[in-house]
TrEMBL record:
GO terms for molecular function: ADP-dependent NAD(P)H-hydrate dehydratase activity; ATP binding; metal ion binding; NAD(P)HX epimerase activity. Catalyzes the epimerization of the S- and R-forms of NAD(P)HX, a damaged form of NAD(P)H that is a result of enzymatic or heat-dependent hydration. This is a prerequisite for the S-specific NAD(P)H-hydrate dehydratase to allow the repair of both epimers of NAD(P)HX. Catalyzes the dehydration of the S-form of NAD(P)HX at the expense of ADP, which is converted to AMP. Together with NAD(P)HX epimerase, which catalyzes the epimerization of the S- and R-forms, the enzyme allows the repair of both epimers of NAD(P)HX, a damaged form of NAD(P)H that is a result of enzymatic or heat-dependent hydration. It catalyses: (6R)-NADPHX = (6S)-NADPHX; (6S)-NADPHX + ADP = AMP + phosphate + NADPH + H(+); (6R)-NADHX = (6S)-NADHX; (6S)-NADHX + ADP = AMP + phosphate + NADH + H(+). K(+) binds at residues 56, 122, 158. Its cofactor is K(+); Mg(2+). Pfam families: Carb_kinase, YjeF_N. The gene is nnrD. This is Bifunctional NAD(P)H-hydrate repair enzyme. Residues 206-477 form the YjeF C-terminal domain.
Length: 478
């Protein structure tokens, strides 16, 4: 297994939310680095620590503190201490100064003199690098390569892209790389890499957390349509469900939300919210003869959510089957529509959002313990070749490969309509994220919105109360 720089940052943030701070992780990283240096050096040897201004440098500062008693340690900081980019790296720099470790700042690349060290510890650039190394980092990399020393790199050889292994200009030629938590894709195939466990709890990967929301940052140059046109195919016997679903998609950042529903209820659906684009087909419920027009409309939209309020009439389920058979985009499937999924042949990417009763109706497992359920849900997702979000006290999300659980939400959310809201958020997320990640974020945000409402007013929550709380759940405090 490998982990990308973006995923690493998300896991790091999730760990902090679980009360394992990044500063604790940095301490573990520095300790692992010091052990690696001890492996290649003899007591009394000279160790030149070269540190950039990010957390990669911070790891190196911690290592210097561990090594100072037994080695001749000198630290070069590439820049002014005030420009260190994170508080935790700066605190570790301050700790070196307070302990009177030989630590100098290097303001100009020509002033960098590593001397003639036995070991170079390369903390110049890590997973936070963008593009080719600039000065003074570039000269520091060259100096590390010119030194007649064993070079130990912190996390990745500086100058190398952790995700791709690409070197834009120059990179440190490491004798040993100590990478943290998991192998980075760019390091695959090298024999000089050790992976250090730095104490990130498994839960930071398993449970969806605030770090998973980091991928939702918006580019300021975004245009209308960049964040998705979501089409809800729902309604007939029920009118509220498709309206809640489509409004939830908008609250979760979709640019446009369409509701395709029977003409008999179109006015009512529109009446719930001026923000919705209601497109009606004749009659009072979905039938197979409507499917061709729906497929044509869906081709222009990013994601379809099918199911909310459709009802379970035989010809409606036939229509759902025909629609999925003809569709090759991304569809979130909810409510009565779920039961046709196991029997349909489709090229579509499906995200299915059953509660446990609906899962059983699909032929899936019923298990009380969430961890046992997670394993079986993963198998069932793989069998069906879909992403499953199984709603419960712990929601389980799996695409058969990656399985996550979500702990947000509360007993107030057993009220009708909260599933329609989840389906709508999932639809919006699926227009910009991979299906399993979209589903994980949606489950987290839906539950967090419910928690915020209950915190504020106590139980007696309505699904419509969730709508206004979705934006803060997604983009509020991180
Ligand atoms: N959970 C973990 O894996 C932990 C990892 N840690 C270490 O943190 C670094 C990543 O730290 P970050 O601060 O995000 O980035 P960097 O230190 O890699 O670099 C940022 C720093 O560099 C500047 N910069 C970016 N690109 C360039 C360039 N082309 N030329 C010059 N300078 C550049 C940028 O402006 C910043 O100042 C990870 O690798 C681990 O080593 C933590 O210890 C916590 C746990
Ligand atoms: K490095």
């Amino acid at each position: 297994m490998t982990i990308t720089a973006a995923r690493m940052a998300a896991v790091d943030r999730n760990a902090a939310a679980l009360d394992v701070s990044t500063k604790q992780l940095m301490e573990s990283s520095g300790h692992a680095l010091a052990r690696a240096v001890r492996d290649v050096a003899a007591p009394g040897d000279s160790v030149a620590v070269v540190a950039g201004r990010g957390n990669n440098g911070g790891d190196a500062f911690v290592a210097a503190r561990f090594l100072d008693a037994d080695f001749d340690v000198s630290v070069s900081l590439l820049g002014r201490p005030e420009t260190i980019t994170t508080d935790i790296a700066r605190e570790n720099w301050d700790a070196l100064r307070a302990a009177e470790v030989d630590a100098e700042r290097v303001l100009d690349s020509t002033a960098l003199d590593l001397g003639d060290p036995d070991v170079v510890l390369d903390g110049v650039l890590g997973t936070g690098v963008t593009g080719a190394p600039r000065e003074p980092e570039r000269s520091a990399i060259v100096a590390a390569n010119e030194a007649d020393a064993a070079v130990v790199s912190v996390d990745v050889p500086s100058g190398m892209d952790a995700d791709t292994g690409d070197v834009a200009d120059v990179a440190v030629d490491a004798d040993r790389v100590v990478t943290f938590h998991d192998l980075k894709p760019g390091l695959v195939g090298r024999d000089d890499v050790t992976v250090a466990d730095i104490g990130i709890p498994d839960a930071a990967e398993t449970f969806v957390g605030p770090g998973d929301l980091l991928s939702l940052e918006r580019d300021p140059t975004a245009h209308k349509g960049d964040f998705g046109r979501v089409m809800v195919i729902g309604g007939g016997p029920y009118t509220g469900a498709p309206a809640l679903c489509a409004q939830a998609a908008l609250r979760a950042g979709a640019d446009l939300a369409y509701v395709a529903c029977p003409a008999a209820i179109a006015g009512e659906v529109q009446g719930y919210a001026a923000d919705l684009i209601v497109e009606s087909y004749e009659g009072e419920r979905l039938r197979p003869r409507h499917v061709d027009d729906l497929l044509a409309a869906a081709a222009d939209r990013d994601v379809v959510v099918i199911g909310p309020g459709l009802g379970g009439a035989t010809d409606t389920l036939d229509a759902v089957r025909d629609f999925l058979a003809g569709y090759d985009g991304t569809a979130v499937v909810d409510a009565d529509a779920l039961q046709v999924v196991p029997e349909v042949e489709t090229d579509a990417t499906l995200v299915c959002t059953p509660h446990q009763g609906e899962l059983v109706k699909m032929g899936g497992p019923r298990v009380d313990d969430w961890e046992e359920r997670a394993a079986l849900v993963a198998e069932f997702a793989a069998d069906l070749d879909v992403t499953l979000v199984v709603k419960g006290a712990y929601d389980v999300v799996s695409d058969g490969e990656t399985t996550r659980a979500n702990r947000t939400g509360n007993p107030g959310m057993t009220v009708g309509g909260t599933g329609d809201v989840l389906a709508g958020i999932t639809g919006a997320m699926a227009s910009t994220q991979e299906p399993a990640q979209a589903a994980a974020i949606a489950a987290y945000a839906n539950g967090a919105a419910g928690d915020a409402v209950v915190d504020e007013q106590g139980y007696g929550l309505l699904a419509s109360d969730l709508l206004g709380a979705i934006p803060t759940a997604l983009w509020g405090e991180r």
